[in-house]
């Protein structure tokens, strides 16, 4: 089982990376930089020169939650993701990419069949994600956005990874740990350290489930 782990920053996966780096596992880690464009570029570049393919791509990272009933530090699966900005305004309405026939803006994950039996996977609660260019931090824009877009969590890369995996027909999973609530910008209330610790522990558990 050859796996590609995709993270926006080294910081988000460094604890995991330093623990597995001498184990010679069939796991590659790629750091893309934050955002959908750097993510699509890095993955395109990687696959253009890769000598082999993968059985699974896993996008991991921190994320913001629109929902207060998801605790900070929770590690969750994003099984649906979308590019919310792709589409067209039509007066007060918004037409999605699908509505105007320009392509897809919404994606679902796809796991190898055997994966549901791993407890690291079956324990995860699934939520709907949205992939944005701007981290929301204004109450009015959050209200407008959530009245249009059906999402529980937001990140800046998820849908781009789903897009690439779909295009290459490779199974894909997105697992994120909640670092903050989507609210009027307040960096002091973020718990990035807890989110990253929990995410790295989850990655270690998944690795044990698969390779031990
Ligand atoms: O606002 C800042 O000063 C600031 C400094 C460093 C990093 C950030 C981020 O927003 C991190 C973005 C990074 O983490 C993911 N992420 C985490 N929370 C959210 C969110 O509420 N909305 C969207 N993305 C989020 C994202 O995938 C990026 O990779 C800010």
From TrEMBL:
<comment type="similarity">
    <text>Belongs to the PNP/UDP phosphorylase family. Futalosine hydrolase subfamily.</text>
</comment>
<dbReference type="InterPro" id="IPR019963">
    <property type="entry name" value="FL_hydrolase_MqnB"/>
</dbReference>
<keyword id="KW-0474">Menaquinone biosynthesis</keyword>
<feature type="domain" description="Nucleoside phosphorylase">
    <location>
        <begin position="24"/>
        <end position="201"/>
    </location>
</feature>
<dbReference type="InterPro" id="IPR000845">
    <property type="entry name" value="Nucleoside_phosphorylase_d"/>
</dbReference>
<keyword id="KW-0326">Glycosidase</keyword>
<dbReference type="Pfam" id="PF01048">
    <property type="entry name" value="PNP_UDP_1"/>
</dbReference>
<dbReference type="GO" id="GO:0016798">
    <property type="term" value="F:hydrolase activity, acting on glycosyl bonds"/>
</dbReference>
<dbReference type="InterPro" id="IPR035994">
    <property type="entry name" value="Nucleoside_phosphorylase_sf"/>
</dbReference>
<keyword id="KW-0378">Hydrolase</keyword>
<comment type="pathway">
    <text>Quinol/quinone metabolism; menaquinone biosynthesis.</text>
</comment>
<comment type="function">
    <text>Catalyzes the hydrolysis of futalosine (FL) to dehypoxanthine futalosine (DHFL) and hypoxanthine, a step in the biosynthesis of menaquinone (MK, vitamin K2).</text>
</comment>
<protein>
    <recommendedName>
        <fullName>Futalosine hydrolase</fullName>
        <ecNumber>3.2.2.26</ecNumber>
    </recommendedName>
</protein>
């Amino acid at each position: 089982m050859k796996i590609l782990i995709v993270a926006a920053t080294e910081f988000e996966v460094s604890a995991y990376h330093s623990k597995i780096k001498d184990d010679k596992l069939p796991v590659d880690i790629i750091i893309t930089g934050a955002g959908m464009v750097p993510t699509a570029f890095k993955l395109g570049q990687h696959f253009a020169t890769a000598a082999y393919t993968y059985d699974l791509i896993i996008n991991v990272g921190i994320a913001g939650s629109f929902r207060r009933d998801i605790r900070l530090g929770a590690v969750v699966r994003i099984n649906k993701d979308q590019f919310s900005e792709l589409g067209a305004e039509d007066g007060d309405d918004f037409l999605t990419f699908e509505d105007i026939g320009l392509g897809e803006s919404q994606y679902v994950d796809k796991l190898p069949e055997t994966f549901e039996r791993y407890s690291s996977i079956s324990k995860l609660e699934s939520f709907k994600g949205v992939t944005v260019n701007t981290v929301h931090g204004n109450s009015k824009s959050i209200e407008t956005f959530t009245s249009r877009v059906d999402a529980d969590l937001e990140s800046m890369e998820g849908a781009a990874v789903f897009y690439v995996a779909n295009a290459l027909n490779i199974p894909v999973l997105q697992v994120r740990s909640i670092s903050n609530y989507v609210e009027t910008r307040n960096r002091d209330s973020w718990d990035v350290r807890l989110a990253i610790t929990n995410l790295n522990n989850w990655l270690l558990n998944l690795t044990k489930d698969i390779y031990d």
